[in-house]
Amino acid sequence: MWDADYPWDVRTEKVCLALTAAGHRVTIVARNRKWQPEREQLAEGRVHRMPAWKLAGPALDGALGFPAFFSPRWSRLIWNAVRESGADLIIVRDLPLCPTAIKAARKFGIPVALDMAENYPALMRDRKLGSRNATIDFFARNPRLTERVERYCVDRVDWTFTVVEESSVRLVAEGANPQKMSVVSNTPPRARAANSAQKSVAPGSCTVAYLGLLEVARGIGELIDALGILRAEHGGAFRAIVIGGGRDADLFTARARAAGLLDTTIAFLGLLPHDDALAALSAADIGVIPHHATELWNSTIPNKLFDYMAAGLPVISSDTIPCARIIRETQCGVIFHSGDARSMADAIARASAPSELSRMSAAGRSAVRERYNWEHDTATLLRSIQTFAARK
User: Fold this and answer.
1) Range of the domain at 289
2) Which helix (H) or strand (E) holds 259?
């Protein structure tokens, strides 16, 4: 179950391709705001989309298709998909529709797993830091309500997949059963690291990349300030490309323009297709993760960490617990103090030294080839499904 239109979601695709390759039959239940065909066969599985209510018009149809756990429209959709596919188990991608999935699993007597991509209650708190909060956020993205839904779901699903060890630790501390969860992280295929080039950079020329959503809690403001410091101290030696979009994108564009950095030092490339975004990383020398060390980022892991490592980019990261742990373990980057532009600028300057950059580039690629790859996480995924499906 995926609570938005499909295609596309990188984790949904990876999980479904892994299941299909292992011989399972996969149905992807998805929303349908774009009024696509209700059934479509893709390599990763058969897509079962919500029927469009065209008489209601796009706006009302979209509103009535909102992924709320109490939505009868979503309940009917998943029930029909289970019947049509003869499903033996349900995997629900993240929290909003998990109660719906639990209800359907009970109705049909099959197991259900929650694929928890992040700390959803903490995500709701982080979103309140931005300036683009809508009225619906009070109801649909209320942190206290989300905490209750999460607790209800984790207690009732047959298995929980988390994306990093710190996420599992958080859930266990809150009373979850550690025997009913496993870590399946957001890692790239091993081949991506094998095919990427060893990074080297000429002194006096360094491009820093940020890949991801543009939101206040992700530290883009401090990244802009750090680039301002580097320009003041090193002239035009440092540039940055920012790949992605988000609710606070206009804030950051205005901030870069006010600092005199827009286009000359910082280029905002906007939201790119996934393959194009990864290709854009090849033009960079360093990858940065400026996220604030909030509850959210201390208990989840961004995809970009492994994307940078696979591309051979040294990783400059704030001291969020999971990122700092992996970077120190693999020696693939430099850690700076969260929210501190001066500390970030110093870390970027240190990593840009040719000998350091080459060493950290090799370390990141090696870590992806040996441990942090999708082949490793696929094995955990399949083993876990065998475990909880057999119990049921």
Assistant:
1) 190-370
2) none
